[in-house]
Design goal:
Elements lengths: L1 H20 L42 E4 L6 E4 L8 E5 L4 E8 L2 E6 L2 E6 L3 E3 L23 H10 L10 E2 L14 E2 L7 E2 L3 E2 L1 H9 L16 H6 L4 E4 L9 E6 L2 E10 L4 E7 L6 E7 L5 E5 L3
Antiparallel strand pairs: 1-4, 1-7, 2-3, 4-5, 5-6, 8-11, 9-10, 12-17, 13-14, 13-17, 14-15, 15-16
Helix pairs in contact: 2-3
Length: 303
């Protein structure tokens, strides 16, 4: 009897595991298109920055410092840890004044704005030069910062890139992305992929929304799944769907998986233009579609 039940128990456990892992099911023509959306589910890098070499961060208070050793930019947060929301992203070279220290974090004054940044990405700077950087400006070429327009510009740059189950890697959006190999999704189970670039639905939104931090776009980091977007409030807030605006997101997560997309324009309750990594057969698309009633609206903090 026990031997006869064993295969049944094994199949049940496998089904439960599959249900837990499924997190990117779209609704293309009423057919579930995307399967997957695995995430690394790790904490953000403690440095809270980007590609760097090491830097000394034993900095004096009331000193002029500058953002250094970053590839994209440095997060400036509301408190001294990665648990606090990102207020702005500081481009390399941004000058600031150190006001307070907590562990390896420094509270900075940047052109009348205030926030905390990790000290490893701050270097002593000469006081002879006045900062010309604007707090909250884009992390590299203008137009790709943490703003509604920046999110849409990033999304637009990655149209036609491949769907990659569990992936989230793109060339920098200002670095001629249309000329780069876009990868290929080739498996009927949605887990097969070739090439260095592509993303699943939540990986795509994570890069467009710049979470958990201003990571290099080509870094294949994917900390959040549709389950997180649907059930939690980390770098985003739950908003009324009727109040959805450009660069907000629509997310679904349920027993059969989930899906998430960037809302651009149209009706939050009907036909809308969206950016999304829609599935193996589609990749990243900009399309006019109907958003099902089971989707919920989310807004990136700081925009």
């Amino acid at each position: 009897m026990e031997a006869a039940r064993q295969p049944q128990v094994t199949r049940l456990l496998a089904a439960l595991l599959a249900a837990l892992l499924a997190a990117c099911v779209g609704d293309v023509g009423g057919v579930s298109e995307d399967y997957g959306d695995l995430s690394e589910r790790g904490d953000p890098d403690p440095e809270d920055g980007a590609y760097t070499t090491f830097a000394s961060y034993n900095l004096p208070l009331n000193a002029t410092v500058k953002v250094c050793h970053v590839y994209v930019g440095l997060n400036n947060r509301s408190g001294p840890s990665t648990n606090y929301m990102v207020l702005r992203v500081l481009p390399g070279g941004t000058r600031a004044k150190t006001l307070k220290r907590s562990g390896n974090w420094y509270r900075l004054s940047i052109n009348g704005k205030y926030g905390w940044s990790y000290g490893q990405y701050l270097c002593k700077a000469s006081t002879s030069t006045t900062s010309t950087s604007t707090a909250g400006s884009s992390p590299s070429p203008s137009g790709y910062g943490l703003s509604r327009n920046g999110i849409i510009n990033i999304s637009k740059a990655y149209v036609h890139y491949s769907y990659w189950w569990g992936g989230a890697a793109f060339p920098a959006p200002w670095n001629s992305p249309k000329s780069k190999p876009k990868g290929k999704c080739y498996s009927s189970t949605y887990t097969g992929h070739s090439g260095s670039y592509g993303a699943d639905c939540s990986g795509f939104v994570g890069k467009a929304w710049r979470i958990p931090s201003a990571l290099p776009f080509a870094s294949n980091r994917h900390p959040y799944s549709t389950w997180h977007y649907y059930n939690q409030s980390n770098y985003w807030t739950h908003i009324s769907r009727g109040n959805a605006r450009r660069a907000d997101a629509m997310v679904y997560n349920g027993s059969h998986g989930g899906h998430i997309m960037i809302f651009e324009s149209g009706s939050p309750w009907g036909q809308a233009w969206t950016y999304e990594s829609r599935g193996c057969s589609y990749g990243v698309v900009h399309n006019l579609r109907t958003i099902g009633s089971y989707y919920r609206a989310r807004r990136r903090k700081g925009i």
